[in-house]
Amino acid sequence: MKQILIILAHPKFEHSVVNRALIDAVKNLEGVRIQDLYELYPDFNIDVQREQELLFGSEVLVWHHPLYWYSAPPLLKQWIDLVLEFGWAYGPRGIYLSNKLVLSAVTSGGPQESYSAHGKHGHTFGDFLLPFAQTAKLCRMQYLPFFHVGGTHKINAKELDEAASQYRNLLIALRDSTSVATHPTPSSNSQP
Amino acid sequence: MENSFLFQAIIYLGAAVICVPIAKKLGLGSVLGYLIAGIVIGPYLMGFIGEEGEDIMHFAEFGVVMMLFLIGLELEPAHLWKMKTMILKVGLSQVLITALVFFGIALALGLPWHMALAIGMALSLSSTAIVLQSLKEKNLMDTLAGKHSFAVLLMQDIAVIPILALMPLLALTDLGTVSEHGSLFDGLAPWIQTLSVVAAVGVVILLGKFAVEPLLRMVSRTRLRELFSASALLIVIGIAFLMEAVGLSPALGTFLAGVILANSAFKHELEADLEPFKGLLLGLFFIAVGASINFELIFGNAAMVIGLTFGIMLLKGLVLFGIGKNAKLSLDQNLLFSIGLAQIGEFAFVVFSFTLQLGILDRGTTDLMMATTALSMTLTPIFNLMNEQLLLPRVGVKESTALPDDEIDEKNQVILVGFSHYGSTVGRFLRASGVSATILDHDADRVDLLRKMGFRVFYGDATRLDLLESAGAAEARLLISAIDSPETNLALVETLQKHFPNLELMIRSRNRADAYELMEMGVENIYREHLDTSIRMGKDALIKLGKRAHTVQRLAQNFQKYDEASLRELVKVKDDQQQYISMVRRQIEMQEQLLTGEMKRRFSVNDHAWDSEAIKKEIG
User: Fold this and answer.
1) Do the chains contact at A86 and B554, CB–CB below 8 Å?
2) Do residues B508 and B360 share a domain?
3) Does B618 touch chain A (CB under 8 A)?
4) Does the model's ipTM exceed the 0.85 cut?
5) CATH number for the domain harbouring residue A93
């Protein structure tokens, strides 16, 4: 059984409907730990060492956040900036995240269809997650296909239930999958 | 040997050092401690000091003079001007009514009118030293009771001038014999005396405005600390001397000088330098009062002296209570006011010895009145204590249960103890965020105001179990103590931990030492009152020196985290050291440990966030 670490970044989680439902669906799963960044670090002063320890102790990392202006809320970016240190997460000696799995679990107000070359936003949803995919890659992690819940302003109860159980099933599947993460030897040059 | 100065000093200091901490520990206050010390070393118990006690009292009265100078320093002229109606209305009516009442009684007892008038005037005065010292010690100066008491005392100090001026007129003997005790100008015509008084006050004002500040500036440039202390003493003693020379009350003169210097840049240095002198002299004064109590006389005429003392204090208290009522003081404030001022003051010693010299009163009456005065001063702290322990709690309970609504409405989740500057900021923030707290406070007037503003407020001493219960401590989730006094906080925590173990406590602490004590009691949430502000100040200083604001912000956050963590570390090793290192040394050692820790940590060097140096080095 793998350990799953959800890095949750939502600046107003108490007002969130969709993210609340998603988190409620997975929070009691065995092997899942949720780091609620805006609750833990309201002053943006992230405890880097603690976060690195948690990260090191888990096999699956989930970046869970709403999409704001085509990116993550700022505290998740702060987390990435501070926790994924040179010489630890990346760089010649940065091997501690090798082969871990990374999943972006993202909600958006715009519906799925608006994210396409001809849609309102002009690009696919995956295009906007490119920085996250590349961040994972640079840290020698495996970036999984993203989990997206769109149209959150208009979602009905049935659709939300469905999304929540999909999310739950996805995490259970990841947790119980048998692929073994091995530590490779540090490879040469890679830089941001 | 016994009469050597050093031996005397050892007796006085030793008695004070032993008695005062015990009295404070017992909750009696320092004044009573000093008085007891005086009684113990006085002629009737251990006999270490005898007749010289009275001389020492005259010398030590200078503590009162210094106290008034220091109080003047705290009062700006504009502020004093605002108090003028209170001083006139409350103060003047107290002096006049009390003097008249005792004048009438003395007449009724068959004393001749001039004796009756002298006694009436002497009895109208209260003890500035005892009352102000107690008020300051209990932090009551800013309450209505404190302000009214101060107004009365100030008026009494002013009244001393006409009282002393009247005394010779009451004398039936030849005036010539008293000149040695009077002022320089006694032999002169009355208009010259008046003129000299006006001139002296003018000199004080002019000196205060134009001479003192340049003098202090010059002295402070020498950077000799002791020279500054010397100048501070010189100013006070000089003014006192000038006032005595023209026959004014030195206390009043120095008070005036203090007020004039209240806006001076050197205000705080003056305060810091004179404070210890004042404290010592006042202590000495109280010891001398204790030592001067004539127990032989008291035991010889026990019924007479005790009856007189209680009767006078009761009458004075009643007059004061009426005045307080008229000034619309609430019951608890009025009790503090009227019981606090009910004694006969130290100035009565002066007046009585003066009347003896003038032949207004005979030796027997004077001794009797002096014993009564000393006894009433000794009883004051005891009465205050009884008032606080027995009377006020009842008054408080009445006030908090007087509003039946309090009991019915829903209990709040948060109890906030203390609504002074600190507590009110916490409370306002909570309320602005939609959380209303139940407030406990011991200032009845503040309680009234808060109730009018819709807060749920309980009045009284928060360490009392019944009050905590009625405030809902059993149902609340959080109790926030914004109390300033460490002793009260510790007592509160003890009560709460014993009776409401599930209530989460958040306690304000003054400094590290207080925080240690709270930690040892198992309090988790401790808030050192200066911590955030001082770090914020340091942060702003670094920014002003050109550091980038965000970097400094992160440094400050880390520093605060480190500081809190080190506190928890240091508390563990603390008990390995000797138990009784003096507090000062303990603080210094703490600072040392902290500073060396900081040197090792070098926060700024360890901060690699957004830093490309390491990357450049490794890849370069």
Assistant:
1) no
2) no
3) yes
4) no
5) 3.40.50.360
